[in-house]
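Figure S4 source data
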Amino acid sequence: QVQLVESGGGLVQAGGSLRLSCAASGSIFSINAITWFRQAPGEERGLVASIGWSTGNTYYADSVKGRFTISRENAENKVYLQMNSLKPEDTAIYYCTARTRRANNYSGQGTQVTVSS
């Protein structure tokens, strides 16, 4: 199994920045990719960005391209989401999810990001 803990959320004004962290533990060797999702009240969970654990290949939702950057620090078993030029519509609970090579998914408890206008 893989355990994930998110941190770094908070309240920020529009135009500001936050950096989220996702710390992984457990069966690290089995991770294929880490993905950040977000869910706003009354909305479905949506993909924000994803990174290959060993390849470093990245993918971004159109809504965050050019503003968010996903990166990994394998030595620390961490994935980061640098969020710049934040907008009120970025307000949501952000979750990191690990997908393993056996197609199992594990998710953390989430961290709240609130962007005020």
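Figure S5 source data
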Amino acid sequence: QVQLVESGGGLVQAGGSLRLSCAASGSIDSIVVMGWYRQAPEKQRELVAVISRGGTPTYADSVKDRFTISRDSAKNTAYLQMNSLKLEDTAVYYCAAKVQPAMAWGYWGRGTQVTVSS
């Protein structure tokens, strides 16, 4: 089993920055892929960024060149650096992990709220 705990959310003005963290514990050696999703009110959950062990990060078009996903294996933590935040980035952000790239996401955090104000 793997447990994921997000932190770092909060209220920020448009144009500002936040860094989200996702601390993993448990059977962390099994994790190959980590990602960030978000869900805005009355919208479907969408994939924001993905990072695989030894692979190139991928991003949703809506956050490309603004968000950066990274992973610190020594700290068992994934990060999402969010710059130039927009009102439409307001959402609950969830960390997810899986043991194989082709498999479904097997582990989820509880989410952290990000609110961007004008």
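The chain has a mean pLDDT of 95. The longest strand covers residues 18-26.
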